[in-house]
Design goal:
single chain, Rossmann fold, 6 helices, about 30% strand
Length: about 200
């Protein structure tokens, strides 16, 4: 038996779904997913008439998201999905109502790289637009991670990630001239890792 929610939403990030339920993006029409993978967070947007763009460094992932686009929105251009690095996003700056970047920024090599990725994403958001991101942090597991220098840490699950903390996210919010449209929220996954949802709006 088909699952109607699955058909509508695909494998959307539950925290992005939360924002949809709250009506946060009702007036958004132009959406970009930065590090889109195979398009798990684009299912809803493609099915509901949004103008959708995506970039991912994996050509295989871009092939998958193009196939998804053809399936869900046959009249939508697949040329909106491109393979490439975040620092070289080929789309027009400040042209998106919503930029999504989920589970990507924590793959930064160091602080300089992280800030380069962050600013590349932020530059896509138009004044008044939204930036939704989820990334690894040390919030709630500060004593369980091992500092590897330059912002990189070893997590209890054995992975290495660039981690932020609560104060650093507040500092970046201020530095970007942004506003939080949702409180910073963190999910602790069995003390193995912590994933933080950081939601910003660019001042009009």
């Amino acid at each position: 038996m088909a699952n109607p929610l699955k058909e509508l939403l695909g494998d959307i990030d539950i925290y992005l779904f939360d924002q949809l339920l709250k009506g946060r993006f009702d007036k958004c029409r132009r959406v970009v997913d930065i590090g889109c993978g195979g398009g798990r967070n684009l299912h809803y947007f493609l099915k509901n008439g949004f103008e959708v763009y995506g970039i991912d460094r994996s050509e295989h992932a871009i092939a998958d998201v193009k196939a998804l686009c053809r399936q869900l929105a046959p009249d939508h251009s697949t040329e909106n999905f491109v393979a490439g690095n975040i620092e070289g996003i080929p789309f027009e700056k400040e042209s998106f109502d919503l930029a999504i970047c989920s589970a990507v920024l924590h793959f930064a090599d160091d602080k300089v790289h992280f800030e380069s990725l962050l600013h590349a994403c932020w530059n896509m958001v138009k004044p008044g637009g939204y930036f939704f991101t989820r990334l690894a942090s040390d919030i709630g597991i500060e004593e369980l991670v091992i500092d590897l220098d330059n912002g990189k840490h070893m997590l209890p699950d054995g992975s290495e990630r660039y981690l932020v903390n609560h104060q650093r996210l507040l500092d970046y919010t201020h530095h970007l001239g942004a506003e939080l449209f949702e409180p910073i929220k963190t999910t602790n996954v069995h003390n193995m890792r912590a994933m933080t949802t950081w939601c910003l709006q660019k001042k009009a």
